[in-house]
Amino acid sequence: MGKGGGCVPSKQKHPKPSSTQDSHPNLKLFIVFYSMYGHVEGLAVRMKRGVDSVEGVEAVLYRVPETLSDDVLAQMRAPPKDDSIPEIASATHLTQADGFLFGFPTRYGCMAAQMKAFFDSTGQLWREQKLAGKPAGFFVSTGTQGGGQETTAWTAITQLAHHGMLYVPIGYTFGAGMFKMDSLRGGSAYGAGVFAGDGTRQPTEIELALAEHQGKYMAAVLKKLAQV
C-alpha cells in the first residue's frame, strides 16, 4: 500500500531484446578487381580471408567487366574467368559498401584499362559524392621488379581524391615481412602486390600473406571509422 492508501502499481517488466535485435549488420568491404591471368585474383581471394577474420566485417569479391573481346583474350592466352566470382553489376553498386580494396595489374605504371573504364563509369557517384568519406586501398600486379609496384597504386590515388574517399595504405604494419631480402616479394607500403613475370610465376606465400594482412588491417580500420 502506498501512503495515500492506493495500490502501488507494479513495475512492468519489458522483455530483453533478443540477440538478433542486439546485433548490428556486418560492415561490408568490397574487394573489386581486374585480373587477366589470375595473379590479382589470387591476392583478392587471400585478402578476403583476412577481412573475414575480423568480427563484424564481411568481404565481398567482385570483378570489373572485361573490355577485350574473346578473340583478343584468346590470342593473349588469358585463362577463363572464375564464374564463382561475380562481375559487379554497375558502379552504383559501390554505394552498398562501407569500404573498398581495389586490385589491378599495371599498364606502364598505371592501372589497367579495364579498371580505369570502371572508374570512368562512376561519374554520377562523383557528381553526388556518394562515396565521399569511405576508405579504400589498392593492391597490384606487375611483370617486373621495377614495373610499378608503387607507382601503379600512387597514380590511382587521383580516383579516390575526386570522390572524396579516404586512401588507406598499409605502411609497414606487416612488420618483419616488409624487410625480408632473401626472396623476391611484391608489395609495398602502398599495398599488397605480386610479381607476375611472363605470366607463369604465381604469388608466393609471403605475397599472399601480405595480401591477407592488408585485408585484416583494412577491416580493422573500417571498424574504427564506423565507431567515430
The quaternary organization reads as single chain
Question: What's the number of structural domains?
Answer: 1
> Termini distance?
49 Å
Task: Please identify the top-level CATH class.
Answer: Alpha Beta
Characteristic terms for this protein:
single chain, 228 residues, alpha/beta, Rossmann fold, seven-stranded mixed sheet, disordered N terminus, Flavoprotein-like_sf, EC 1.6.5.2, NAD(P)H dehydrogenase (quinone), FMN binding, NAD(P)H dehydrogenase (quinone) activity
Characterize the structure shown.
- The protein has 228 residues and is α/β, with parallel strands linked by helices.
- The protein has one domain (27-226): Rossmann fold (3-Layer(aba) Sandwich).
- The chain is built from eight helices and seven strands, in the order αβαβαββααβααββα.
- Strands 1, 2, 3, 4, 5, 6 and 7 form a seven-stranded mixed beta sheet that branches.
- Strand 3 (99-107) and strand 4 form a beta hairpin.
- Helix 2 packs across helix 8 (205-226).
- It is globular.
- The relative contact order is 0.18.
Describe the secondary structure blueprint for this structure.
Layout: H1 19-22, E1 27-33, H2 39-52, E2 57-63, H3 70-75, E3 99-107, E4 110-111, H4 113-120, H5 123-128, E5 135-142, H6 151-154, H7 157-163, E6 166-167, E7 193-195, H8 205-226
Parallel strand pairs: 1-2, 1-3, 3-5, 5-6, 5-7
Antiparallel strand pairs: 3-4
Helix pairs in contact: 2-8
